[in-house]
Specification:
This protein has 269 residues and is an alpha+beta fold. It is built from 6 helices and 12 strands. The protein is globular.
Length: 269
């Protein structure tokens, strides 16, 4: 239902990092590309033995991977044994996944159904695909911070990216949004900040209005949302704002999610 745009990334060297660069480890997860990027001293990125104060940086990556796999196991509508597939049969949700359900239902209410986790119709459970990836990123970032796994791992920064849903675990990073002419618009993200982009960069890919089930036709190429703390909220908002369009979307954002900011890429004449 939703097309997630993968952001083209460029990186801003944080203060104190000198000229040392960025290293990334990526894999497939939740149907898209997952990436953990590290920024710090050259010794932090001496593959294959990247070290942190808590051991191999690959342990950090495995910690992130395990979170993503758990979210997918519980929230995939394609798995008949998942928590969300059994939603209508048993009712209730697990405490671990509850924030994702609550955020989706809140966004549905505030948007008047533009964001609609029940788009599949009556008699079916919700589909949280519109915010699940952002939720997984938030959980993974919280786990890394809680377990102290970022101390020394990329001493100047760690960035999580799941299908274009970004969250800064530590450091300062710059993400680039490419417009139709190929130019890049830079956005700087610091500790805890998150962003997500929805768009229709590929022919035949569409975003649908949750109220009507119809594909959206407007003058937008993409919408990028930056949130001070939640990749999950940024994830859901980016699609919602794309459907609403710039004028209505800006009004909605100001009244319902004033802490967030949106960057709009408009189609060229």
């Amino acid at each position: 239902m939703i097309r997630r745009l993968l952001l083209a990334l460029s990186f801003l060297v944080a203060a104190g990092c000198g000229s040392h660069g960025v290293d990334s480890i990526q894999w497939m997860s939740m149907g898209t590309i997952a990436r953990v990027s590290f920024k710090g001293s050259a010794s932090s990125f001496a593959l294959p033995s990247m070290r942190s104060s808590r051991g191999d940086n690959r342990c950090l990556v495995e910690s992130v991977r395990s979170v993503y796999e758990e979210v997918e196991r519980r929230l995939s509508i394609w798995n008949s044994e998942s928590e969300i597939s059994r939603y209508t049969a048993i009712g209730g949700v697990s405490p671990e996944m509850r924030p994702c359900y609550e955020a989706a239902f809140e966004l549905q209410r505030k948007s008047g159904g533009v964001f609609n986790p029940f788009w599949r119709g009556k008699g079916t459970g919700p589909d949280l695909g519109g915010i699940a990836k952002g939720f997984a990123v938030d959980l993974a970032a919280a786990k890394l911070l809680r377990e102290g796994m970022c101390q020394g791992a990329g001493s100047c920064g760690v960035l999580l990216d799941l299908g274009g849903n970004l969250k800064v675990v530590s450091g300062e990073w710059r993400t680039g949004i490419r417009n139709p002419s190929g130019e890049m618009q830079a956005i700087v993200l610091t500790n805890g900040m998150a962003c997500a982009t929805s768009g229709e960069y590929e022919r035949g890919k569409h975003i649908y209005d949750g109220r009507t089930g119809l594909a959206v036709t407007n003058d937008l190429v993409s919408v990028t949302v930056v949130h001070p703390s939640s990749a999950m909220i940024a994830d859901g908002l980016s699609t919602t704002l794309f459907v609403l369009g710039r004028e209505e979307g800006e009004s909605f954002l100001k009244s319902c999610y004033p802490e967030a900011a949106a960057y709009w890429i408009v189609k060229q004449p």
